[in-house]
Amino acid sequence: MEIYRDKTKSFEERAHDLVSKMTLMERCEQLKFGAPAIERLSVEAYNWWNEGLHGVARAGVATMFPQAIGLAASFDDELLKTVAEVISIECRAKYNEYSKHGDRDIYKGLTLWSPNINIFRDPRWGRGHETYGEDPYLTSRLGCAFVKGIQGDGKYYRAAACAKHFAVHSGPEALRHEFDAVANPKDMEETYLPAFEALVKEAKVESVMGAYNRTNGEPCCGSEYLHKKLVEWGFDGYFVSDCWAIKDFHENHHVTATAEESVALALKNGCDVNCGSTYILVYKAYQDGLITEEEITAAAEHLMRTRMRLGMFDETEFDGLGYMDVETREHLDVSLEAARNACVLLSNDGILPLDKSKINTIGVIGPNAQSRKALMGNYHGTASRYVTILEGIQDAFDGRVLFSEGCHLFRDRVEGLGLPGDRIAEAVIVAEHSDVVVLCVGLDETLEGEQGDASNTDASGDKLTLALPEPQRLLVKKVMEVGKPTVIIVVSGSSLNVEAEPNALLQAFYPGSEGGKAVAEILFGKTSPSGKLPVTFYKDVHKLPDFTDYSMRYRTYRNEREEDDNVLFPFGYGLSYGDVRVIGAKANVAGDCVKAVAELENNGAETSDVLEVYFKSASADAVRNHALCAFKKVHLKKGERTSVELSIPLKDISVVNDEGVRYLDKSAKTVLYFGTSQPDSLSERLTGKCCVSAELSF
């Protein structure tokens, strides 16, 4: 038996044997994202490009979950793992069925280029809603859970995950093909690299994707520094370029003079497969003496090793998955649960939950009330059924539900021949005839997203302001002037300032195909909201540091100035219908961990909530404020008490000096704060609760 067919051999041995039987030209062709078949070796054609950010994307019907930023709002790594397991099951099921029909097109493989673990450092970034927010610790925990769910823990992966975009990538979108993201050693180690390191070391992520931009002068898909980091971390998967990023080397970054030189720079620095077209010149670069046969062979072996790990040359336990395993009732239930957890209650004067017995008519108003796009986010799949917010309310309420679109999402009129504000009067009329108004505003992927995908070409997918689009600002003003009890629901992937004080404000992010049902359950009290903000919500974009400044000074909750009044709602903040408080906590150092116990009590309605643990170090090398170091989702009935035990690795309470060296500063006072929010004055004021502290002794 040939070694590459021998299941008793390691995947590395099998991949080495298989590639040794290929001609050099065949090896070169395998480095393209659309790799051709090699029939004599039983190598099927394979397209490496597939997406699974919050559901299998762009390949027909699949379960559609809340966008990644909404999943992050759950602060629930166990939920993220379950979501990812569903995604990988459906990915494998669809792959099996498509393969039976000879369909090996783009978006139909087993290599999912997700998750996006970049840091959402600036609310203007259009792609920020693809991430898990602004905190590197939260991002690493959720990212690891997602990868483990995608790949599974057996001999073969159900699917292969990909950590992207490596590294220091977060806008502006318009400059990403030419921009040099300059970050000092401290910010690299403290903020931009931890999640990637965790996914490589802990989750054994099978792939890493390079970013478009340069980082400290080097293009990320051909960076010696970043490649050495992966080697240092023990990465043994495959490295893929972002799509058409390698041609940026010579066309936009101008670090090479020719396409062949760009091929060489990428390949020599570990880029195994090119999403794009530049690697059609791999053989030409070899002929020109720019790369060696050994470098081509190494990349091909990495790719074949991944395909071996996915069981493409063997029978596996996943072969029985098929189309009846896609968008099952059980999978939709997971989507619904994720949508419930994605909603963050930002304010509530007591109007929520709505009492159906005291309401005859609800007015549902706004461009996102009956919008399917508002459920989706970007990099989305196709659900067979969508429940909009309007439909969710209609299904849950027996009284009269009136509806008005109110305005276009961003244009000044709904009808092309109408006058500006052509739906405002209807919205006012609906409000006048309603006992309660639910006003649904925000954005969708046409206004915030990736360069080239979003319609706001003026900003290339980024936001220029934190305000609602002008037609929606007018709509909010006019509806609020009616004076009826009003709940505003914001559907967006990022920080917005509605510039109003409704009776309640709910951030739904992009909640997926079941989003409308989840929102209705929260409105009527069937479910208590439990989401927490994975990003800081700001008042004014003009008070933020320059968008192109990648320094973390004065960025995110960890480094904000205490006297800064630009924070609207803090990271980690979110209300519920319960009253969960930490009533006691203790912590001590034991070996390489901190062992901590927190006592929680719920004096309100049954609810889920999040125990959040932050550490503050007096070290000169610590972040300005405090940093998240642990979290745990809990569920408590009314009057229930519970004890939560945590084991916090000492690395997670370490500091980083200006040279980028991480260490535990045992000489500095270190305090842990236990609560359901940050230990900052604004969170205390908004929640009426204080954190419980425990000082550590080393």
Main sheet overview: 6 strands, mixed
Q: What's the β-strand tally?
A: 25
Assess the beta-strand content as a share of residues: 15-25%
Which regions are unreliable across 5 or more consecutive residues at pLDDT < 50? none
Cα distance, first to last residue? 59 Å
* Helix amount: 25-40%
Query: What is the CATH top level name of the largest domain?
Result: Alpha Beta
The CATH architecture of the largest domain comes to Alpha-Beta Barrel
- What is the assigned CATH homologous superfamily of the largest domain? Glycoside hydrolase, family 3, N-terminal domain
Radius of gyration: 26 Å
Strand order of the largest sheet: 9-14-13-12-10-11
The CATH topology of the largest domain turns out to be: TIM Barrel
Secondary structure class reads: alpha/beta
Separate helix tally: 20
> How many domains is the backbone divided into?
3
Can you give the mean pLDDT? 97
CA-based shape: globular
